[in-house]
């Protein structure tokens, strides 16, 4: 595409000005930096003129950079030029004289990395920006190593977390110095050297010929899906082949685990070359590269392993195992303490470890108390295999006990154990080989987990799981057997993929003492999280794990939770104590919780990863992408930490924790209401500051925050009966038509808490004055007047400070005007005036009012009580407290009767006024008449009659009850009028006998017309003594037995019996005519229905075979309507529900649809209309059949057996036809079938919407025997 002459370009562009951060001349770097720069110019490395030209492209291909040696001048200088993709020079690197090789373009951050040598001082990695200016540097090697090596190649992994640097010897002919690779990780802009790798195996003799080319690159082509570093070394000319090496790398955090029963210091270790930084995150959060304690080892450290803090350990309980990068160097074992107490130097086998306390207080800095260097004389090998596996870096170090450590050999094929022994008062370490993979196995061990049951889990290959008893392996290794246990080729259980992080998680059931363990594994490269139930001997042959999350970025096992972060920047907290339903399906529960937002995940900063979480506490530490640490307290962990505090009633600690984490104070009560109410006195005694109690009362609300704001954190709780009723009552109170008759403010949560606190605090009012006042304000209804009275007592005693503080507290909740009104409502005018002055109200507004009220009590003497009562009444009227005003006006006497009556009439306080007045007085009568007029105007006639009746207005009550046809109330009014004396009653309220007789006649006629025959009979027989009329009414209503009884009470019994017989025969004739008409109508409709269905069947067949000429329209088959006789239970339930919002609309639509149905021949919906007609006929006949039984009995009593038998046979015949027609009219094609029951043949029984009598009426052919079903006490079938 283009050819660039670097020599000419450099001569032309020496004065090229870089843009971006400005000119280099304008950048201040200090005197020290200038001196270093001048020294670099004077002392150039000798071989710079022969360094190779290097080129590197940016990952998007938009730019490339070239480093080369410019020998055009008197001295060779190293140059760095940055070009665009088309070959156009973009910028020139500044200060490039000391640059060497290792050019690489760092991805994502877009910085150029290249080595830089400071002769005789150090070798560095310099970073340059796109504009050519340097942007930081990293120290690589110090003297004298820097004079023997150079950087050959630099590369970054795909995720840009690891920087791999290849160091090559300057003298390639001398094989004394061999190449090596160092891995670096950046945190808070500091690059830390994590490990050192050798492309050639060590120890081995150096090659006899010079090494050829050495190279390295990153990839991820391995079964575990982790990042893999590949190195290749050419063994020189004339030597066949090359040496290839690969390392599978995964990011991990060296932290101490938690063991049940022990304190968790949450120690985290950070490796940086020879330094190991320790920080106890439980006590201090110090971001790397800083730390609480720094350990300095003799050689570079490659890996560390921290043991759990063991309970009841002989030593301090935390052990640190340190592995150097050099396989010839001795590993270290150190005993750690959580407090700084150790020496500055620790020596073992002539090797020294230095430790320094850094950024932490003495009580927060871990300290090494003992150290052992594992040289050859300190290690005992149980076998030759044990000696071979304890060489190089040990993988997957897993602590079994304070003295035992399991590990995997460097080749990944052997499982070993390191044991600390005490021999002759000296510490010795024993190494044993416990198990190995079969020689035919091609996989390696890539995971190790120790379970609480003494079993160890070994992951091999792409997720295969072996589970063995560790004790069995130890016993086999100790017995001296030469054969080592070999894992079988086939794994009994497996993960769906290989996991680089594996935890043994124990879940428990909240309701039962049950536990089960699951293996939870994470594959970091694919962000997949899987779960596998802990295999047992019965299930190991079929156990396979399941993927429960596909976006997991990190996880951590807390003492009570499984913490998981996702790529969506959310933190999930899965409790280890699950409810019964979740416990029996843990894997499904994990899927549900980790893939749903219903469990309140916490939002995190982008790229946050879990570092540690302190056991039995809420502190959780996360690391951000650039390396800084963030301390958070997830709500679930905070509530889990608060639970034992609440249970032990340590309310002072609970208050401090809730304030620190901004927890709603309602939780103090809502967590366990009965316990809190019973221990309120203890709560008040523990709280040192009354302000905390004030905060609690201020936060009080009626809602249960464990079900609203903190829903999902506390599980299901059994509600208190009183609280549940109060909560429902607050929602339905407005639906009551007579709200004054209900308790206005039940014992709700706020009232209960305030009353309990007041009971505990009122013995010390001065100390708790502010929370006491807050309780009075928060109660419903408010009781601010009690608080004002309490403050007034302090004011009278001269304690102005309490008075001032109390008023300021009240003003936070109550407005000044309302405070004045409340003070006025106490009837204490002095307090009201003081309150008005304190709240800075306008004197022109309240002084005239107070003067008028004082004037009302200016009189003295016998009228003092009445004047005071009237003053209170005026105050209540001003405050719109009409009920209290009514009581005060009544106490003021009859002189204020007119005002009393106006208040009652205007505010409609009739019932309260009558409670104050004495019955029988003119005032009682007057108020009763006013109330009755008001009720009549609102069309509440029965209530108006009751008011008249209570006031002895019998005539008015009787007239109102007569107009409403209230038989019993009218008779009560008449009886009371007859019993009262004429002298006591008012003239217009006297009822004469003629008036009573006239009203009784009118009432009997009204009741007869309304069909209320039994009430009409009682009026005729008992009030009018007209038995003939009573018998006629009873016969008309079908009450034959009652008619026969009344006939015997008449003077002329014979004529009454003849009248009864004529009435029975007349009723029989009418029913017979109606039965004939109904039978004829039913027959016609039934026959037409059969004709229509025959036509429909014929047209259907014609349409099927294509014979008919017309297009068949079967829309009239929409018979699944309200006229059908079969309906499902759900449909019945929906129709029976009168609370449905669409009920009225559906009724309107049904009536509109029915108007389309017509029995006119040929109409579209004729079949539907005929079914509706048949339904109406059958239903009306059913009601008629219910009256025939009593009529046939009466005909038999009158000697008309033949007539009774004829009527019964006619009714039986029609009923039989109806029953036979049911299955024809509502056939299966119309109704379908519903599984509401089975008949005798086992078939599905269709449900019938309309109830039919299952027994036919019996005829009277067997007279004089009584008919079946006859009962002299009832007239029912």
Automatic annotation (TrEMBL):
Residues covered by the ELP1 first N-terminal beta-propeller domain: 12-198
Tree of life domain: Eukaryota
Name assigned to this protein: Elongator complex protein 1
A GO BP entry: tRNA wobble base 5-methoxycarbonylmethyl-2-thiouridinylation
UniProt biased composition (Basic residues): 1147-1158
The ELP1 alpha-solenoid domain, residue ranges: 635-722, 746-853
Source organism per UniProt: Echinococcus granulosus (Hydatid tapeworm)
Biological or metabolic pathway of the protein: tRNA modification; 5-methoxycarbonylmethyl-2-thiouridine-tRNA biosynthesis
Residue span of region Disordered: 1136-1158
Compositional bias ranges of the Polar residues kind: 1137-1146
Chief subcellular location: cytoplasm
Spans through the membrane: none
Source taxonomy: Eukaryota, Metazoa, Spiralia, Lophotrochozoa, Platyhelminthes
Keyword annotations of the record: Cytoplasm, Nucleus, tRNA processing
ELP1 N-terminal second beta-propeller domain location: 270-611
């Amino acid at each position: 595409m283009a050819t660039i002459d670097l020599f000419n370009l450099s001569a032309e562009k020496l004065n090229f000005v870089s843009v971006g951060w400005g000119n280099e001349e304008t950048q201040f770097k200090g005197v020290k930096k200038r001196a270093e720069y001048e020294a670099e110019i004077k002392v150039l490395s000798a071989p710079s003129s022969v360094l190779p030209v290097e080129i590197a492209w940016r990952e998007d291909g938009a730019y490339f950079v070239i480093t080369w040696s410019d020998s055009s001048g008197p001295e060779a200088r190293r140059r760095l030029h940055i070009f665009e993709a088309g070959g156009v020079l973009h910028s020139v690197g500044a200060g490039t004289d000391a640059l060497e090789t290792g050019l690489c373009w760092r991805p994502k951050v877009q910085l150029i990395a290249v080595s830089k040598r400071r002769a005789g001082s150090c070798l560095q990695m310099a970073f340059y920006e796109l504009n050519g200016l340097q942007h930081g540097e990293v120290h690589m090697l110090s003297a004298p190593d820097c004079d023997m090596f150079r950087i050959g190649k630099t590369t970054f992994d795909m995720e840009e977390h690891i920087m791999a640097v290849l160091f090559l010897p300057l003298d390639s002919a001398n094989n004394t110095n061999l190449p090596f690779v160092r891995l670096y990780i950046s945190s808070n802009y500091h690059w830390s050297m994590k490990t050192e790798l050798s492309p050639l195996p060590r120890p081995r003799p150096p090659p006899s010929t010079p090494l050829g080319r050495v190279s390295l690159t990153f990839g991820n082509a391995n079964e575990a899906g982790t990042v893999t570093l590949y190195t290749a070394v050419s063994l020189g000319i004339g030597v066949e082949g090359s040496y290839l090496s690969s390392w599978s790398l995964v990011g991990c955090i060296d932290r101490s685990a938690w063991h049940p029963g022990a304190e968790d210091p949450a120690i985290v270790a950070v490796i940086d070359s020879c330094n190991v930084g320790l920080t106890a995150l439980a006590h201090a959060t110090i971001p790397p590269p800083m730390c609480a304690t720094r350990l300095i080892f003799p050689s570079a450290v490659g890996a560390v392993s921290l043991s759990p803090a063991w309970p009841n350990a002989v030593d301090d309980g935390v052990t640190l195992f340190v592995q150097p990068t050099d396989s010839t160097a001795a590993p270290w074992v150190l005993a750690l303490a959580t407090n700084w107490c150790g020496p500055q130097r620790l020596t073992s086998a002539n090797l020294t470890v230095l430790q320094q306390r850094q950024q932490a207080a003495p009580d927060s800095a871990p300290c090494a108390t003992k150290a052992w260097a594992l040289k050859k004389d300190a290690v005992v090998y149980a076998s030759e295999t044990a000696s071979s596996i304890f060489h190089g870096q040990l993988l997957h170090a897993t602590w079994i006990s304070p003295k035992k450590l399991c590990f995997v050999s460097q080749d990944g094929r052997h499982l070993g154990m390191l044991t600390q022994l005490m021999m002759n008062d000296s510490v010795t370490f024993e190494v044993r080989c416990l198990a190995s993979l079969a020689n035919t196995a091609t996989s390696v061990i890539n995971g190790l987990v120790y379970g609480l049951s003494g079993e160890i889990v070994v992951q091999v290959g792409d997720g295969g799981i072996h589970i063995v008893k560790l004790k069995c392996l130890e016993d086999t290794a100790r017995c001296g057997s030469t054969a080592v246990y070999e894992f079988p080729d086939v794994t009994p259980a497996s993960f769906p993929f290989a996991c680089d992080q594996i935890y043994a998680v124990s879940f428990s059931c909240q309701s039962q003492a049950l536990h089960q363990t699951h293996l939870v594994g994470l594959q970091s490269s694919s962000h997949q999280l899987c779960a596998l139930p802990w295999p047992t001997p019965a299930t190991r042959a079929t156990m396979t794990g399941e993927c429960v999350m596909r976006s997991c970025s990190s996880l951590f096992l807390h003492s009570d939770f499984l913490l998981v972060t996702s790529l969506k920047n959310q933190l999930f907290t899965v409790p280890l104590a699950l409810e019964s339903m979740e416990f029996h399906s843990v894997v499904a529960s994990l899927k549900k919780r980790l893939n749903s937002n219903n469990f309140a995940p916490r939002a995190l900063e982008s790229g946050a990863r879990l570092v540690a979480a302190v056991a039995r506490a809420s502190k959780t530490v996360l690391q951000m992408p650039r390396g800084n640490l963030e301390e958070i307290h997830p709500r679930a962990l905070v509530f889990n930490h608060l639970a034992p505090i609440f249970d032990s009633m340590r309310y002072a600690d609970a208050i401090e924790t809730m304030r620190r984490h901004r927890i709603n104070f309602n939780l103090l009560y809502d967590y366990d209401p009965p316990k809190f109410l019973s221990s309120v006195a203890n709560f008040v005694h523990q709280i040192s500051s009354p302000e905390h109690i004030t905060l609690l009362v201020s936060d009080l609300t009626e809602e249960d925050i464990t079900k609203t704001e903190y829903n999902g954190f506390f599980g299901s709780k059994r509600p208190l009966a009183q609280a549940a009723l109060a909560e429902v009552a607050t929602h339905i109170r407005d639906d009551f038509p007579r709200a004054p008759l209900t308790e206005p403010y039940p014992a709700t949560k706020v009232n209960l808490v305030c009353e309990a606190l007041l009971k505990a605090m009122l013995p010390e009012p001065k100390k708790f004055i502010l929370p006491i006042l807050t309780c009075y304000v928060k109660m419903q209804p408010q009781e601010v007047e009690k608080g004002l009275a309490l403050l007034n007592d302090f004011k009278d005693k001269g304690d102005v400070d309490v008075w001032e503080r109390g008023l300021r507290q009240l003003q936070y909740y109550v407005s000044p005007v309302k405070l004045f009104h409340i003070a006025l409502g106490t009837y204490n005018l002095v307090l009201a005036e003081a309150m008005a002055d304190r709240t800075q109200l306008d004197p022109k507004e309240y002084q005239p009012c107070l003067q008028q009220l004082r004037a009302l009590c200016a009189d003295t003497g016998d009228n003092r009580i009445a004047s005071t009562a009237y003053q209170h009444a005026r105050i209540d009227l001003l405050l719109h407290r009409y009920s209290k005003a009514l009581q005060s006006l009544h106490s003021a006497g009859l002189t204020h009767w007119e005002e009393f009556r106006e208040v009652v009439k205007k505010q409609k306080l009739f019932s309260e006024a009558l409670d104050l007045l004495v019955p029988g007085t003119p005032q009682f009568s007057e108020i009763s008449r006013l109330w009755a007029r008001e009720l009549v105007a609102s069309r509440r006639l029965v209530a108006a009659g009751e008011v008249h009746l209570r006031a002895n207005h019998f005539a008015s009550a009787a007239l109102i009850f007569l107009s409403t046809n209230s038989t019993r109330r009218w008779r009560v009014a008449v009886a009371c009028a007859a019993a009262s004396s004429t002298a006591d009653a008012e003239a217009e309220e006297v009822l004469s006998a003629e008036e009573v007789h006239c009203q009784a006649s009118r009432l009997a006629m009204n009741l007869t017309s309304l069909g209320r025959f039994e009430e009409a009979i009682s009026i005729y027989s008992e009030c009018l003594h007209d038995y003939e009329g009573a018998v006629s009414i009873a016969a008309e209503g079908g009450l034959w037995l009652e008619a026969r009884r009344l006939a015997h009470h008449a003077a002329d019994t014979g004529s009454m019996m003849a009248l009864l017989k004529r009435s029975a025969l007349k009723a029989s004739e009418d029913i017979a005519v109606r039965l004939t008409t109904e039978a004829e109508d039913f027959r016609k409709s039934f026959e037409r229905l059969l004709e229509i269905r025959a036509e429909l069947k014929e047209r259907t067949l014609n349409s099927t075979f294509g014979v008919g000429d017309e297009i068949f329209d079967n829309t009239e088959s929409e018979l699944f309507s309200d006229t059908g006789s079969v309906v499902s239970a759900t449909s019945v339930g929906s129709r029976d529900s009168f609370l449905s919002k669409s009920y009225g609309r559906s009724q309107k639509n049904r009536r509109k649809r029915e108007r389309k149905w017509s029995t006119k021949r040929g109409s579209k919906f004729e079949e539907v209309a005929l079914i509706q007609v048949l339904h109406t006929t059958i239903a009306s006949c059913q009601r008629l059949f219910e009256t025939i039984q009593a009529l046939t009995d009466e005909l038999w009593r009158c000697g008309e057996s033949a007539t009774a038998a004829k009527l019964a046979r006619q009714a039986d015949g029609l009923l039989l036809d109806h029953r036979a027609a049911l299955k024809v009219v509502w056939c299966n094609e119309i109704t379908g079938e519903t599984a509401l029951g089975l008949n005798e043949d086992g078939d599905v029984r269709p449900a019938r919407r309309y109830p039919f009598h299952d027994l036919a009426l019996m005829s009277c052919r067997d007279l004089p025997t009584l008919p079946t079903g006859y009962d002299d006490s009832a007239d029912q079938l």
